[in-house]
């Protein structure tokens, strides 16, 4: 009897799995399942969908001693795992209420209704843990077994008479536990394939984003105008399956390539209300229909769009717009691509100001230093960020923010002096990206007094820290630690950058500030000369180093600048 029920249940579970496989190929289902932040309406749709799966499981059940051996739990439990508590509870209520209403007063009607709701709730509560688990199908299998055991316990507690409940559980308990838990695991394997497909698409988009960034860098570094916008839009259009790409400034269209370029013309005022709203709010927006785009040309074929603000010093200076010609066709991969490009372009636009800013700088040394830092660091940073886009998108976004902050502060470093705290913030943005590149090989410690008052030349400390990273720690196989320390005294502030890297021999240290051919200590030479020129010969860098032990670089900043005025 038990074996017969098990065989029959497995066949019925197979039907549910086939339906799940078919659903996994439908775009609407794939979009709902893979959305990171699903709306309330999305949750209702998922709840109804998985509730229906539960109802199908009920109708495909096997009558046993006045009860049903069924696979109702599969849809409800999977819904809870994928959609969270709201979906788990509501789909449980839908399937559970249906089970009760088709057999009011039945032997197990109430018990099954209660257990269905409890199992859906349980799955919803496990949702966060489920997403953090590497082997999701094993986790689902184990939790499915526990859920079905709980259902058997509820039948024993609620169903009357008790002796009949016991006899029923003896017959259906093992078949339902085995078949349904396996069914849940297989359903999860099917849905997990959707995520893997998205990951593959995201990986491809990441490669595209890197290629776009590399190709467009030379344009936006010339400034943000109609010419550079058109060249960049053409590159994006050629390298993606988007139907149109556009750039605007705050008031007019700079470039529009693709569908709609007959009426979205460069030089025209911005036509769409949603673009104006993005410029006003500084937040990206997604349009899922022609009505939301609200183009005033009736024949316009553009029906979906993502509009991303482009910023300079936190001020919106324009937008990047990616279009498609089908309703509701902007997916998560498109969104990530647009946001990533928006941040990269914002950074590139800010970089375009560097050359202009450098012309205004009085010190030739600072010009040379900025020119040395930015290009190499930018390309390394972009490569690092791209490597995180697929595996750790949140980390990639965090690094993009650090990159923007780094170059923003770089652009602002055009005064005679800056506060030490500002310089430290700048260094921290730089180090966050370097730590992402090198992982556990790079450790950094800060020992800066909270209320320290110190003004120093801009970009005076960063080259020393960079030198410690590149030539100290990264030359050491196992990596190491950098300590950045400030000592506040009455007449001066002592700044120390110490690393336990590979170190240098005495002969090299003797010639470290010479400009002879082959010397790669340009940053240190620059800093040393700037300190001496500003404060006097006695304020040059002091370097102590020993091979295999590490290097300590010390500078002194006298207190006769801004704080003394």
UniProtKB/TrEMBL annotation:
E.C. code: 2.7.13.3
Naturally occurring in which organism (per UniProt): Caloranaerobacter azorensis H53214
Chief site of localization: membrane
Record flagged with keyword RNA-binding: no
Keywords annotated in UniProt: ATP-binding, Cell membrane, Kinase, Membrane, Nucleotide-binding, Phosphoprotein, Transferase, Transmembrane, Transmembrane helix, Two-component regulatory system
Pfam families recorded: 5TM-5TMR_LYT, GAF, HATPase_c, His_kinase
Example GO molecular function: ATP binding
SMART domains: GAF (SM00065), HATPase_c (SM00387)
UniProt enzyme class: transferase
Transmembrane regions listed in the UniProt entry: 6-23, 44-62, 74-97, 104-125, 137-159, 171-190
Stretches assigned to the Histidine kinase domain: 460-561
Single GO BP term: cell wall organization
Recorded GO CC terms: plasma membrane
Subcellular location as annotated: Cell membrane
Source superkingdom: Bacteria
Protein's name in the database: histidine kinase
Membrane topology per record: Multi-pass membrane protein
Catalysed reactions, semicolon-separated: ATP + protein L-histidine = ADP + protein N-phospho-L-histidine
């Amino acid at each position: 009897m038990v074996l017969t029920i098990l065989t029959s249940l497995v066949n019925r579970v197979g039907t549910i799995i086939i339906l799940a496989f078919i659903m996994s190929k439908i775009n609407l289902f794939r979009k709902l399942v893979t959305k990171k932040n699903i709306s309330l309406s999305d949750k209702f749709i998922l709840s109804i969908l998985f509730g229906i799966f539960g109802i199908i499981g009920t109708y495909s059940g096997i009558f046993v001693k006045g009860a049903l051996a069924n696979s109702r739990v599969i849809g409800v439990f999977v819904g809870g795992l994928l959609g969270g508590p709201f979906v788990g509870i509501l789909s449980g209520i839908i399937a559970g209420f249906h089970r009760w209403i088709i057999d009011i007063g039945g032997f197990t009607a109430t018990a099954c209704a209660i257990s269905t709701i409890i199992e859906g709730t349980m799955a919803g509560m496990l949702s966060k843990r489920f997403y953090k688990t590497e082997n999701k199908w094993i986790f689902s299998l184990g939790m499915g077994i526990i859920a079905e055991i709980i259902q058997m316990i509820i039948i024993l507690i609620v169903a009357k008479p008790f002796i009949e409940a016991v006899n029923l559980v003896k017959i259906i308990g093992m078949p339902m536990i085995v078949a349904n838990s396996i069914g849940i695991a297989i359903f999860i394997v099917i849905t997990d394939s959707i995520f893997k497909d998205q990951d593959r698409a995201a990986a491809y988009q990441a490669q595209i984003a890197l290629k776009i960034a590399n190709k467009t860098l030379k344009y936006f570094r010339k400034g943000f105008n109609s010419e550079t916008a058109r060249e960049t839009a053409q590159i994006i259009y050629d390298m993606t399956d988007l139907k149109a790409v556009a750039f605007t400034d705050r008031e007019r269209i700079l470039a529009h390539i693709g569908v709609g370029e007959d009426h979205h013309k460069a030089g025209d005022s911005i036509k769409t209300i949603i673009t104006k709203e993005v410029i006003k709010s500084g937040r990206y927006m997604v349009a899922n229909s022609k009505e939301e785009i609200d183009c005033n040309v009736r024949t316009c074929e553009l029906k979906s769009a993502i509009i991303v603000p482009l910023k300079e010093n936190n001020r919106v200076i324009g937008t990047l717009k990616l279009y498609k010609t089908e309703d509701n066709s902007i997916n998560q991969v498109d969104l990530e691509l647009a946001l990533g490009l928006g941040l990269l372009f914002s950074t590139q636009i800010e970089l375009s100001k560097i050359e202009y800013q450098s012309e205004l700088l009085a010190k030739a040394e600072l010009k040379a230093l900025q020119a040395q830092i930015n290009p190499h660091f930018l390309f390394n940073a972009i490569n690092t960020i791209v490597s995180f886009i697929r595996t750790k998108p949140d980390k990639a976004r965090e690094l993009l923010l650090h990159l923007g902050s780094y170059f923003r502060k770089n652009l602002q470093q055009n005064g005679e002096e800056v506060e030490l705290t500002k310089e430290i913030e700048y260094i921290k943005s730089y180090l966050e990206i370097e730590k992402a590149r090198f992982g556990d090989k790079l450790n950094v410690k800060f020992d800066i007094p909270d209320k320290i008052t110190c003004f120093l030349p801009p970009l005076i400390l960063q080259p020393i820290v960079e030198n410690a990273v590149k030539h100290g720690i990264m030359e050491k196989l196992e990596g190491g630690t950098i300590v950045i320390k400030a000592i506040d005294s009455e007449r001066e502030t002592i700044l120390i950058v110490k690393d336990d890297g590979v170190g240098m021999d005495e002969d090299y240290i003797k010639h470290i500030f010479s400009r002879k051919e082959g010397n790669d200590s340009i940053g240190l030479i620059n800093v040393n000369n700037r300190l001496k020129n500003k404060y006097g010969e006695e304020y040059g860098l002091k370097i102590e180093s020993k091979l295999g032990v590490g290097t300590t670089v010390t500078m002194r900043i006298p207190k006769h600048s801004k704080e003394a005025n």
